[in-house]
Specification:
By secondary structure, the chain is α+β, with helices and mostly antiparallel strands. It has 4 helices and 9 strands; from the N terminus they run ββαββββαβββαα. The strands form 2 sheets. Strands 3, 4, 5, 6, 7, 8 and 9 form a 7-stranded mixed sheet that branches. A two-stranded antiparallel ribbon has the order 1-2. Strand 1 and strand 2 form a beta hairpin. The longest helix is centred in the middle third of the chain and has 13 residues. The termini are far apart.
Length: about 170
């Protein structure tokens, strides 16, 4: 089944609709969400993306993330991605935390980053996620400095922006 995304302009206003393949092949601007799930100890749950993913296969990434489908809003997408990827069902979207403009690091995606607290356990979608693990923020910061290629570029940008705002250690 073909996925369709809203195509947006530089102000994130919908200007059309295209297939996932067309959006990526033509570099069209579109939308995505990332959700960072922390536990009570302040650790962040990261997922290692499946090797079958079309972008950043095998890279460490946000707890849950994905494209906003055509006609869907950011909040509905955040809830859907949490449910589909890690089995976390929510009655309403988690809190919005950070907004990223479309750029090369995000693959032309406008991104809303959400923050959620949960202890798990999670049910990982095997087609999406190879494995997951909890990491303390200082360990994430160290690994991003020493081995940035192990992470999806969008996650690296998210972490950099949060660190610059003083929202995460490192």
């Amino acid at each position: 089944m073909e996925e369709y995304f809203d195509v947006v302009d530089r102000d994130d206003a919908v200007v059309g609709r295209a297939t996932r393949r067309e959006v990526h092949a033509r570099g069209l601007l579109h939308r995505a969400v990332h959700v960072l799930v922390f536990n009570g100890a302040g650790e962040l749950f990261l997922q290692k993306r499946s090797q079958s993913k079309d972008t950043a296969p095998g890279a460490w990434d946000s707890s849950a993330s994905g494209h906003v489908d055509a006609g869907e809003d950011y909040d509905a997408c955040a809830r859907r991605e949490l449910r589909e990827e890690i089995g976390l069902a929510l009655a309403r979207a988690p809190a919005r935390w950070l907004r990223l403009r479309a750029c090369a690091e995000t693959g032309g995606e406008f991104v809303w980053v959400y923050r959620k607290e949960s202890e798990g356990p999670f049910t990982l979608h095997p087609d999406e996620i190879e494995r997951g693990a909890w990491y303390c923020p200082t360990e994430i910061a160290r690994r991003l400095r020493e081995q940035p290629a192990e992470f999806a570029s969008s996650f690296g940008l998210i972490w950099q922006e949060l660190a610059a705002r003083g929202d995460v250690p490192g």
